[in-house]
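Section 3.1: Structural characterization of target chains.
Under the original work plan, the team committed to producing a structural model for every single-chain target entering the pipeline before any wet-lab resources were allocated. The record below documents one such target. The sequence was received from the expression subgroup and is listed exactly as submitted; it comprises 153 residues.
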Amino acid sequence: MRVAYIICCFYCLFTFKVVAANHIGKAGNWTFQTHKINDSTYDLLFNIELAAGEKLWSNSNNTNDTLVSPSFTFDNNTQVKFIGAIRHQGAHTVTLSNKEPQCSYYSGSVCFYQKVKVLRKAAINGQVGFQVGNKHGNGKPQTVNFAFKLGNT
């Protein structure tokens, strides 16, 4: 009877770890769009839709160096001029716990914007790096590729 109890405990513990691991840090749903401002100026839109309870670690106020904030890298393109810094819009929360380092995150739907000016037809390619977590813990840092075609390419 004792052996059956021990086997049952290990089974439950293993099952819980697998279920928890499958719910940590899923990538959310990224979409990429453009908004034309005029013939040569565009906003690049990087949207992520997070499931209930998911957190996208923020690029501001993080004193916890173990969390990966969103980062955007762009392939070199001489036909594109980046205007200003990347902006964001979405639900932003800052934790002020005495037990943990201060950190901030997004939840729900988040949109990042980058304004660009194109000299002529251009393709903009790159990657967004990020990390998602939830109440079970943090997922591994991830990257997603993106591509934009501007100027009637």
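The chain has a mean pLDDT of 80.
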